[in-house]
Amino acid sequence: METSDQLNIPSTVSDPHYRYKMPKIHTAIQGTGNGIKTKWLNLPEVSKALKVPTEYPLKFIGRELGSNIEIKANSYLINGNHPIDKMQEILDKFIKKYVLCPKCKLPEIHGKIQVTKDKKGIKCKCRSCGAVSKLDSTHDFASYIQKHPPPYDKDNTPSSNTNEKEVKKTLDKNVRKAIKECCEKIPNVINLDIDINENCNLVKKLINEYNFPIDIKFYVLANGIFDQNLYTKAFEKKIPLIKFFIFNESDSKNEEALFFFLVGMSDFIFARKNEKCEQYVSSVLYYLYNYDILSEDFWKSVLEKKEQNKYKSLLFNQDINNKFLKSAEQFSEWIKNGPYEGEEENKNDEKNEENKEENKEEKNEENKEENKEEKKEDEDIDIDNI
Ligand SMILES: [Zn+2]
Question: Among 20, 175, 225, 319, which is most exposed with the fewest C-beta within 10 angstroms?
Fold first, then answer.
């Protein structure tokens, strides 16, 4: 199936890179007059993409339109002449009610739909966010599901485990070698003493030699940028470099670039045994936030595992992601509670440096960089002061 023939699940999701896709509805009109019927040509493909029993979407649409349906040996018919747009609109309604997790809105409840014990409702357990929720039992179609529930998958293994096994199996040996090589070369090219644009271009030249796709590119960049001093002023000096790549090098895919930058950072800490940097994760995230690289909405989406589900990559590892999110708890709490007045002030002040004494001090400290004693003091950045 060509990509142009694919829609997001549901089709109202506008992100062109969304990972959940279904084929567009194809129909043919047959018969005339009172005998006119709409034949749904690709119902099995659509149902397969939605991971629901084949007849579900047809029965739902039939009920919504108040039209009889017929299922005859691989032929799926609805009485009347129904435009595809209308059918798609109803299909989206079906998806929102019985395919998406009510909590995280991802189509990850397949195989986890059950009739409640009192037989009056339908519930589901999400494979992605783990939420147990009730599905609409007031709609006509609910009684059909209660009588014909979809097969229940008793296997409790989360689907992410399969992905991890896949990673180990399929990340090509040569690609791994290239990643390692590039990660090792980047620190030698980063030079904070020369003009920042000049340096950005040198790093860009190096990375471009490898022709990596976006996920690997930003994974490699993070691994090359971070070092054991990721929490010192030296890291702050590298921020223009991060900004350059995320905003200039990724076109409209800034969020995907940032996501894989964070995947790279997680691996740097938890896969490459730099666990002592774990305590500075929140501090690094504050930096990215303060420099307008990471937004509140983006981080919330990461916490809800929406970003993780949006992109398919062999680099992503659920275990490491969990460790990373745990180490970012302080930052997450702050984001969840909304920026405090004081800290919001600090953010604005940074842009307006002349006004506050605090900032003058900070600036002085930066100027005295050569003074090694002061630099040592800077190493332990107090997160509250960022
Ligand atoms: Zn969910």
Answer: 319
